[in-house]
């Protein structure tokens, strides 16, 4: 069936490019010399590795009271200690881990929901589209964080999984909208009609004919959802609705605020977690621009 | 045009109904007994108050009434402006407490949104297609959008408030002053307002600049720009045309970003201990005052809906095409 997907090679000018037929090597060629992509990916990978490997070299729990109190960064405590004598470096590396986790979980769930709804609405059209569009618009208007505050305060989040689920359930709408409008333009292509005539199931057509032709687009929406989930989770943690007893960059900000690190001048307590979040999400956004330039030849000449 | 506005109003009405329904459902369908757990958490020591609150909550939740009746009663109370009575500030109605906080939040939000939108649009428009500027605006813009609101607020409060001492880092006004329309009070209010405003303004700025830059690049590739360029029109003129076209998606973007900016305002207020809705929500959470939480939720939703509607109307006014399409009968 791959020759069906490869048929409309003349459509090179359309926004959703068939990626598969252009050589992988060409994409790699452009990817290798795109500074935005390289820098963004470099920072994200470095932080991911720090989050994965870092905790292995910390021989005490992130919330344990191990050292002297209120120590500025030093050789022994790389990022200093809190006013309880907790090691901020340990909290930071564990926090990075859970920050990536919540991004993958929340962003992943939102991505699945958003793309499913977007594809169905864009491909099916008609009444299905109307209903799904209405749902999307309603959820889009509701302010995510405030809905989450009300829901989470009653239901008591225990653990990252539940938090990720909540975030995923509320942050999908714009992705659904974006995917829908892309799917709409692809749904009436000849090769999709051909697939439909051959009696394939809707789901097969979506996954094998439509989705591969907008894979770069899907990848970029996943990255944006990933970053968005991290920011929302940080906001929830900061209000005090984070997973109880856990460690995350948002919870670090919360406790630094709660124990007035600001007034005591303990800058090493609140600067690293925020810098970590900004670095992860910011470099993901920049990576995204890089990807866009790699996949979209129109932007390459810049 | 009226069909467009009517359709939008329909969506907003449905959203409002759903928001109210969520608000009604969450406490009723969560596991456990809400009345009991609420009373346990609201640390009231006075037994008489406890009894009255217990009666009150039982009445509000209407444990014995059938579900659909509870739902209708909830709406009836809502339409009378009755959002319940606070457990934290016990005898005070929730609506009053919220109305006291709303001006502070609006005072932060409106200037921050409008100014960042305007400035961001200009910055983005200048940055597009000019190498040096673009290479700085783009990364800075993305890093700003990735900044958690509360973190920049903390940085500013620390650098300009605690260390620099230029502005007060906490509160809405000095407690030494009583609110009045005198110059000392207003200037005091403004100095307290400045840092939270600045922090929100800076974070929001990045997103608008990037959006505008991307739109301008897109518009500069359009046929009309190429045609003008071929005619030898000055760069400024082409840019002005591109700017006006690029503005439209930015107006829609305003509606989409509203939720994010509002949550940013809530978080920023918490950092600065600013007496708006964000601080109120935090206090309500710490005191387990669910009526305030739910009331604040409804207020925010209503605010977002009104703002969305205003943006829709502005869009119709700004873009003549929507008007022509709507009155021309082509759906």
Please tell me about this protein's structure.
- The complex is a heterodimer of chains A (302) and B (331).
- Chain A has a single domain, classed as Orthogonal Bundle (MetI-like fold), CATH 1.10.3720.10.
- Chain A is built from 14 helices and no strands.
- In chain A, helix 11 packs antiparallel against helix 14 and helix 12 runs antiparallel to helix 14.
- Chain A has 302 residues and is mostly helical.
- Helices cover 69% and strands 0% of the residues of chain A.
- The radius of gyration of chain A is 22 Å and the shape is globular.
- Chain B is mainly α and 331 residues long.
- Chain B folds into 2 domains: 78 residues, no CATH class; 232 residues, MetI-like fold (Orthogonal Bundle).
- Helix content of chain B is 79%, strand content 0%.
- Chain B has 13 helices and no strands.
- In chain B, helix 10 packs antiparallel against helix 12.
- The longest helix of chain B has 38 residues.
- Chains A and B meet through helix 5, helix 6, helix 11, helix 12 and helix 14 of A and helix 1, helix 6, helix 7, helix 10 and helix 11 of B.
